[in-house]
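pinging the channel bc i need a second pair of eyes. not urgent but kinda urgent?? the chain im working w is below, pasted from the shared doc
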Amino acid sequence: MTTLESRQVLFEACFNFRDLGGYETRQGERTRWQMLYRSDSLHRFTPADVALFHSLAIRTVIDLRSGTELEDHGRFRVAGDGTAWHHAPMLDNLKLRVPADGEPAPVREQRAVANPYVYIVDGFGASIATTFKLLAADKALPAVFHCMSGKDRTGVVSALLLDLLGVPEEAIAADYALTEETRARSTSWIEVNEPELAAFFARIPPDLNRAHPEKILELLGYIRSSYGSSAALLSGLGVTDAEQSALKSRLLES
């Protein structure tokens, strides 16, 4: 089922934390619940959020944000529960702030705006491979991967993963679009608590900032035409057949 209510884990200061379970595949299987989550940034956790996070028994956290995002906004810090934190940065040292007067956007950011999801797939294969290898490791699950908003970098990883598992494209795109339903609550919190970040988001063209399902369908079409399949793309990045099989066996049920 592709509804926010069935998937969202309601934290106080994390707004796009969602379960990737329950999706039917083309082979008649289903993705397992409470094994893999996608999210926006976990650095804002309140004490109540920490308690809720502990209850999920998550073993692996994969942070897709850049190094400068870590410096500027902080990172996931939940001590004492045995959760392993890993950094697999995408978009280099992207800074989520309004440029100073006369300061041009970095060239790489300018290129990313043209087609950000293709840019991530073509430009950050090492980070994608690291993410999939971490998820495929023994005892890595349950796990969560995240970026800042849980839309773009997280959306690319989610699309590749669900496609690898055999989830139909329409369901993958619908899952991506659920981010749109979390935006109002997230925006309200950020405007009050992180005004500099809110100012940055306000400058992004509205259409670029929306989670339109067509964006993921276009990405999947690009992967088919350029690489053949998500499995072939991952193989080319060094994610082995054994690792892909491990993901399928652990994340799918009849």
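so The CA atoms of residues 60 and 84 lie 5 Å apart. and Strands lie at 18-19, 30-31, 36-39, 60-63, 84-87, 143-146, 252-253. — does that match what u expected or am i reading it wrong
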